[in-house]
Amino acid sequence: MKTVLSTKMLSPSQKELFLNSGLGLVEYDALKIELLDVKIPFTYSNYIFTSKNAVKAFLQQTKKLDLSKYNAFCVGEKTKSLLEEKGLKVIEMAENASELAETLVKKHQNESFLFLCGNKRRAELPDTLIKNNVQYKELEVYRTNLNPKGFQRDFDGILFFSPSGIRSYLLENTLGESTLFCIGNTTASEAQKHSKNIIVANRPTVENVLVQAINNYKHL
User: Can you give the pTM of this predicted structure?
Assistant: First the structure.
């Protein structure tokens, strides 16, 4: 039986999808998220979220607020669903931060934003906004910490969901002959420094990474 390692704990429905395929699954969290004790100002109308972790930090402080008066601009369908479920109006959703930045420049040039981010945030979005004179402030609301764990075995496939996840895994393990399944091009770029056996999901969702792995081993 082929065995695949997921570098993040999967939800019950994601796990089921996987185990129904007859593949073995090992899972752990390569990263630990720490929400920071910072005060988020609620004087803005427009908030930028590039991850669900930033949304969680925001929601922790908005228990008594009417969220329907805030506008959200976000990356990823899961982040959008979480925001809408809590009553925020999602004005723009993009597949990645670069795409979101371009949309803000094109359609919301004269508005101002608060970007809630983590310590590992990438530079594309801030750089594009600065270059195009879009008014924004940035606030670090969570930290991504590496959570290394050594495995005394090899895996046929490894699922990676961020460049930090790859760095964390490599602190105590090697990639050997494993096929690496990456959630997007940014993660794949990091993987390419260490391996040529890479398959990139065609949509940046956890489910799509799982499907790529399942399809890859289905006929073996």
Answer: 0.88
What is the tens place of the pLDDT at every residue in 156-166?
A: 999 999 999 99
Q: How many CA atoms lie within 13 A of 105 on its CB side?
A: 16
> Tokens 């979480």 belong to which residue?
82
Starting at the earlier edge strand, list the strands of the sheet with 198-200: 24-27, 3-6, 157-160, 179-182, 198-200
Backbone angles phi, psi at 89, to 5 degrees: -90, 115
pLDDT tens per residue across span 60-110? 999 888 999 999 999 999 899 999 999 999 999 998 999 999 999 999 999
CB environment 136-156: b (16+ within 10 A), e (fewer): beebbbbebeebeeeeeeebb
User: Among residues 120, 156, 209, which one has the least CA distance to residue 1?
Assistant: 156
Contact 171, 18 (CB under 8 A): no
The alpha-carbon radius of gyration of the chain (Å, integer) is 19
**CA pair distance 106, 31, nearest whole angstrom:** 34
